[in-house]
């Protein structure tokens, strides 16, 4: 019975992560980069070791005690979910990676919602600057086939 409940919860989490990812992609297609509301955790999760991007778009922000508490709560919940995925022997490596990336996106999105409007603006600016730098670097590299 407990296993069945876990599987249902996992299925709901996967569905939610998929919907969240799809909504971000749809917004990205029709909106300028600066208007996106959540960090692109999927890109950070799978970035190459040679990538010079900062590892955290939230670094350096000063949080209130209430924000710290809420962010820690979100982090603990997502870490628990990630641990359950890594222990699940029914999932293959690709499925686990997809689930872990989904949970990372969910954590970043929920953390972003906790931020004040000024903090959100700073995070958006960092994301836009990082993306612009990535695009410039991609234009300088010759295509390799």
Structure, briefly:
Helices cover 71% and strands 0% of the residues. The chain has 145 residues and is mostly helical.
Helix count, per DSSP?
A: 5
Uncertain regions spanning at least 5 consecutive residues: 22-54
Helices and strands, in N-to-C order? HHHHH
Rg is 17 Å
Helix share bin: over 70%
* Mean of residue pLDDT values: 74
Secondary structural class = mainly alpha
Distance between the termini: 51 Å
The total number of structural domains is 1
How many β-strand runs? 0
> Which geometry do the CA atoms define?
flat
> Proportion of β residues?
under 5%
Query: The biggest beta sheet, please?
Result: none
Describe the structure.
The protein has helices spanning 2-30, 41-45, 65-87, 93-114, 117-140. The chain has 145 residues and is mainly α. It has one domain (2-33, 65-137). α1 packs across α4 and α3 (65-87) runs antiparallel to α4 (93-114). The chain is flat and about 45 Å long.
Features:
single chain, 145 residues, 5 helices, mainly alpha
Blueprint (SSEs and pairs):
Layout: H1 2-30, H2 41-45, H3 65-87, H4 93-114, H5 117-140
Helix pairs in contact: 1-4, 3-4
């Amino acid at each position: 019975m407990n296993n069945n409940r876990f599987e249902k919860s996992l299925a709901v989490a996967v569905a939610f992560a998929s919907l969240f990812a799809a909504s971000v992609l749809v917004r990205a297609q029709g909106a300028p980069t600066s208007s996106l509301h959540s960090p692109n955790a999927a890109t950070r999760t799978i970035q190459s070791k040679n990538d010079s991007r900062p590892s955290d778009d939230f670094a350096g922000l000063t949080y209130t005690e209430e924000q710290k508490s809420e962010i820690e709560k979100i982090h603990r919940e997502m870490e628990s979910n990630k641990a359950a995925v890594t222990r699940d022997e029914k999932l293959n490596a690709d499925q686990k990676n997809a689930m872990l990336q989904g949970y990372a996106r969910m954590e970043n999105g929920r953390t972003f919602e906790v931020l004040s409007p000024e903090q959100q603006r700073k995070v958006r600016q960092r994301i836009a600057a990082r993306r612009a730098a990535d695009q410039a670097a991609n234009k300088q590299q010759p295509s390799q086939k």
